[in-house]
Design brief:
The chain is globular, with a radius of gyration of 22 Å. The chain is mainly alpha-helical. The protein has a three-stranded antiparallel sheet with strand order 4-3-7. A hairpin with a 4-residue loop joins strand 1 and strand 2. Helix 1 packs parallel to helix 6 (197-209) and helix 14 (338-349) packs antiparallel against helix 17. The chain contains 18 helices and seven strands.
């Protein structure tokens, strides 16, 4: 690009980022139809529990969140402004440091069955089983969700010293900044592949305006931040810096342990390409990061892995593998129909590519994604109490990059099909993001239908 071309590209990318952030800061309501400012803060699902962890790290300097849940129930800001005075179930691990015994809170008490609680120290939920601890008063409660996400947020916010009552807005601004970085990094990855500014903008637009990732740009789930980390990792890999790619992959693994598939997939990909040096770099960095994570988890909670507030759920046979891709409520392709075009196009042109950057990208993306699909197929939960294919959100920037590659290598039919499915996906994703609270656990077109019904007066 010449200087004028660079300025045009930067202006277009800035406008795209601005559009994404405008949607993240606005909320649409009907009766009467109107747009209003979005109230920052965690809503439901895992969101308020990440905020509890963030408060504990930022203001208490520890991972013991029992007092933070109690303070939130008493009217504090720990679970976010919308949850002040609410008695929340605890997404925690109970850990007795003297004996080493630990257990998940949700396996002892029923999260959706509150009970009267009048005596000091009682838990206001129905007990499922005896807790089995010798002395519950010496037991600490640490976040059951991997704490790297609130740790990253705490590190980003600490220099600005936000007050507890301002933390919702401060954290939301930081998360939107991470989202902006994901859009920019997606475009830069396409440029690093040598595909040019138009396709870079296409990929950024598919990510930012035509995918369920858009809704997560205004959420307090960890998947949005994980997507930023993963696209930074892919940008490092295609730019020929494997150790940096491995570092980002480690950070992603700390945010969500299931993302270990990224490092594992890239080791296999580099070995397949005959690049043993890069494979060794990635192996070494991933091993050090993995052992550090195990040590951290043992020190904080007495167990090797923090993987959420619920115990492992058995899959429903092969149905789980199908539903995570095509299910009505949480299926990846159901919410990102342009991905089907990308898959067909890349498979059809696969035999015609050599060892160039776009040829290698098939394996750099395909192997980790295949491993992730196998892993999700072994877990019965689909990410319920969320919007769309939550467990796939970290990979959406990668898929957007692949869409640019498909448009570059495919014929006119690919570009037309991407245009049609991209616009169709945007018509689903933008209304859903503007009605974030009203589309959870629903079909991909529910937000579009809700908005359309109001606008046409039904």
């Amino acid at each position: 690009m010449d200087r004028l071309g660079k300025l045009r590209f930067a202006a277009a990318l800035l406008a795209l980022v601005g559009s994404v952030q405008w949607i993240a800061t606005h909320d649409w309501r009907g009766n009467p139809p109107r747009m209003r400012g979005w109230h920052d803060g965690p809503r439901t699902g895992d969101e308020p529990h990440y905020m509890v962890a963030l408060h504990s790290i930022l203001f208490d300097g520890d991972f013991d969140v029992r007092d933070d849940y109690a303070s939130a129930a008493a009217g504090g800001w720990e679970a976010g402004s919308l949850h002040r005075g609410r008695v929340l179930d605890h997404h925690t691990i109970l850990f007795d440091r003297e004996t080493g015994k630990n257990d998940i809170w949700g396996t002892i008490w029923k999260f959706n069955d509150p009970q009267p609680c009048d005596s000091p120290g009682c838990v206001p939920f129905r007990m499922i089983k005896p807790h089995g601890f010798d002395d519950l008063t010496r037991v600490v409660e640490v976040p059951a969700h991997p704490p790297a996400f609130p740790m990253i947020l705490a590190a980003a916010l600490w220099p600005f010293s936000p007050e507890p009552e301002n933390l919702d807005e401060a954290a939301a601004r930081a998360l939107r900044l991470f989202g902006s970085l994901a859009v920019v990094a997606t475009a830069l990855t396409v440029l690093a592949l040598g595909l040019g500014p138009r396709l870079a903008l296409l990929a950024a637009a598919l990510l930012g305006l035509a995918s369920p990732w858009l809704a997560y740009n205004k959420s307090f789930f960890s998947e949005g931040t994980a997507s930023t980390v993963l696209i930074a990792a892919l940008l490092s890999l295609v730019s020929g810096v494997p150790w940096a790619a491995a570092l980002f992959a480690v950070v992603a693994m700390w945010i969500k342990p299931a993302l270990v598939v990224v490092g594992a997939g890239w080791i296999l990909e580099r070995l397949h390409a005959g690049d043993r040096r890069s494979a060794a770099w990635i192996t070494g960095v991933m091993a050090l990061g993995g052992f550090a994570l195990l040590g951290f988890n043992f020190a904080v909670g007495g167990r090797p892995m923090f993987s959420g507030a619920a115990a492992w759920v058995a899959p429903e046979g092969f149905d789980t593998a199908w539903r995570t891709l095509f299910g009505k409520r949480y299926g990846l392709v159901s919410f990102v129909p342009w991905l089907a075009v990308v898959f067909v196009a890349l498979v059809r042109s696969g035999s015609n590519v050599g060892s160039n950057g776009t040829g290698r990208l098939r394996f750099q993306v395909g192997i980790p994604v295949a491993l992730h699909w196998v892993l999700l197929s072994s877990y019965g939960a689909m990410g319920q109490t969320c919007y769309g294919p939550r467990y796939w959100i970290p990979f959406i920037p990668w898929f957007a990059v692949c869409a640019a590659v498909a448009a570059s290598e495919g014929g006119r039919w690919v570009r037309v099909a991407l245009g049609v499915t991209g616009v169709a996906t945007a018509l689903l994703s933008i209304p859903a993001a503007l009605q974030y609270l009203h589309v959870w656990d629903d079909s991909p077109y529910d937000g579009f239908l809700q908005m359309g019904a109001v606008l046409i007066g039904r």
